[in-house]
């Protein structure tokens, strides 16, 4: 026992942060760049930020681009839908790639593959070509999945919601930052001497270059897991080589992932929709100039600096007392309030009131995103990437459907579309009540008093007896041990033994 204790102490000394038995950090130190945990955090959010800047670089310049390319309202709506639809399947594929190859290679590869589309935006000459470049650029949003997978691989249960929330929120910040960046870049290039129809094209070289640099930084400085990269761990035998079919099967057959995909479609999906329409909404409805409309629109995305991280932190805080049930209740409540505020945003008619309600709405809808990924890491240990991809893809599906129904063409005014979108948020949040973990319970019911399921039983069910004989399940066993905190203080832990299954 003394030798075992000494070994554990020696292993923990390899890391700057305190770690659990999986070597995941049990603390989240925001201003640290310690390798590998906090370095992975900063690399992930910066790269995701760059992809958000690229994907939403066009909306703040739409009033200029539409005059240059003769875009109709339908063309603009289709381009907005295209920008978020490409990532639907890309996110599911990214989740699987993370499970099989690791988040480092998966994210860097996608960023480099989509960077040319950002450069080609400067060459768009028709509504069709503009739609295509926005479609292919939007694939880069799948880096969100690698960001959340990376954080869930680096941080332990008590802080994983915080890590996911801050990384996702600061990455999403790019959707607001680009509302400020692109008009300024455009103005500088125009003032230097370029005509406005040339200036907007040159401006797209800035986000494209930023995106490429972030990919190379990940490849050089990133690390997949606390103990090394996937390739090295598999080669040394420390990580088993899993089959795509098994990983995919256990992900898509877990109904909790599908519910989270639906509900995420009406928090993150709504955020993507607002990023696409809000600048034009204020520009047209309140007769503002381009710069002012961009600054107001930017405040929606910039709220991510505190709102989504706040959701992740709230998820971890309520879990300390109420466990997983607290995480689910907090998610439902915050997302429903966001829906109510969205309804109000579409009804108010003054500029000042619209700005206030929009900021409040942004805080709640983005916090719901952080709360969602406070739950995701616990749905599956073996298929974490697939569940993350399904949930992330659901966000893009929600954005596509919302824009198709409410913001394509002139069927609804934008204010009417925003109100109806709020009603959708409220109704699509209700299925959260159906999520139930046998070892922890759900919103309505606690864990069964008759069948006392343990964490080990839940996560071991993803492995066959033959796979367990080979030791493939060992990482799941460690995760089970570290996830007992999801019982919460209110749960009588004595009724469910702590001993791991043999």
TrEMBL record:
One Gene Ontology cellular component annotation held by this UniProt entry: membrane
Major facilitator superfamily (MFS) profile domain location: 40-441
Single GO molecular function: nitrate transmembrane transporter activity
Bilayer-crossing regions: 45-64, 105-124, 131-150, 170-190, 202-222, 255-274, 326-348, 355-379, 385-406, 418-437
InterPro entries membership: MFS, MFS_dom, MFS_trans_sf, NO3_transporter
Record keywords: Membrane, Nitrate assimilation, Transmembrane, Transmembrane helix
Matches recorded under Gene3D superfamilies: MFS general substrate transporter like domains (1.20.1250.20)
Cellular localisation: Endomembrane system
GO terms of biological process kind: nitrate assimilation
Pfam family, one: MFS_1
Membrane topology type: Multi-pass membrane protein
Region (Disordered): 472-502
Family note: Belongs to the major facilitator superfamily. Nitrate/nitrite porter (TC 2.A.1.8) family.
The name this protein goes by in its record: Major facilitator superfamily (MFS) profile domain-containing protein
Source species of the chain: Ziziphus jujuba var. spinosa
């Amino acid at each position: 026992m003394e030798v075992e204790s000494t070994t554990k102490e020696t292993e923990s000394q390899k890391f700057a942060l305190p770690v659990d038995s999986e070597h995941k950090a049990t603390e989240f130190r925001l201003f640290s760049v310690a390798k590998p945990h906090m370095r992975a955090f900063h690399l992930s959010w910066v790269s995701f930020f760059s992809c958000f800047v690229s994907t939403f670089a066009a909306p703040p310049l739409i009033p200029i681009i539409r005059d240059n390319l003769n875009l109709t309202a339908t063309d603009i709506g289709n381009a907005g839908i295209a920008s978020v639809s490409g990532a639907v399947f890309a996110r599911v594929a990214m989740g699987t790639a993370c499970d099989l190859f690791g988040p480092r290679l998966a994210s860097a590869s996608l960023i480099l593959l989509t960077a040319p589309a950002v450069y080609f935006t400067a060459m768009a000459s028709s509504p069709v070509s503009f739609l295509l470049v926005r479609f292919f650029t939007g694939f880069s949003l799948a880096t969100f999945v690698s960001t959340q997978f990376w954080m869930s691989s680096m941080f332990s249960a008590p802080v994983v919601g915080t890590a996911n929330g801050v990384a996702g929120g600061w990455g999403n910040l790019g959707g607001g930052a680009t509302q400020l960046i692109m008009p300024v870049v455009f103005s500088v290039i125009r003032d230097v001497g370029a005509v406005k129809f040339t200036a907007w094209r040159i401006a797209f070289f800035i986000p494209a270059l930023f995106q490429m640099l972030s990919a190379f930084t990940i490849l050089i400085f990133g690390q997949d897991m606390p103990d090394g990269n996937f390739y090295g761990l598999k080669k040394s035998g420390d990580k088993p080589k899993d089959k795509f079919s098994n990983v995919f099967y256990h992900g898509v057959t877990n109904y909790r992932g599908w519910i989270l995909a639906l509900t995420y479609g009406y928090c993150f999906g709504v955020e993507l929709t607002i990023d696409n329409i809000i600048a034009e909404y204020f520009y047209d409805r309140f007769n503002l100039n381009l710069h002012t409309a961009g600054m107001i629109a930017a405040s929606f995305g910039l709220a991510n600096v505190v709102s989504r991280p706040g959701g992740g932190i709230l998820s971890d805080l309520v879990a300390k007392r109420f466990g997983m049930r607290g995480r689910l209740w907090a998610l439902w409540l915050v997302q429903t309030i966001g829906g109510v505020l969205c309804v109000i945003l579409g009804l108010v008619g003054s500029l000042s009131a619209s700005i206030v309600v929009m900021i409040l709405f942004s805080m709640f809808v983005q916090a719901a995103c952080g709360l969602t990924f406070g739950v995701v890491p616990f749905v599956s240990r073996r298929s974490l990437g697939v569940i993350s991809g399904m949930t992330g893809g659901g966000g893009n599906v929600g954005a596509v459907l919302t824009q198709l129904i409410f913001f394509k063409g002139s069927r609804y005014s934008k204010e009417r579309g925003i109100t109806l979108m709020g009603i959708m948020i409220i109704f699509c949040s209700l299925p959260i009540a159906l999520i139930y973990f046998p070892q922890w319970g759900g919103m309505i019911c606690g864990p069964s008093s008759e069948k006392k399921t343990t964490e080990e039983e839940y996560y071991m069910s993803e492995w066959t007896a033959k796979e367990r004989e080979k030791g493939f399940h060992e990482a799941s066993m460690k995760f089970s041990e570290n996830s007992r905190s999801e019982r919460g203080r209110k749960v009588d832990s004595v009724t469910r033994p702590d001993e791991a299954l043999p």
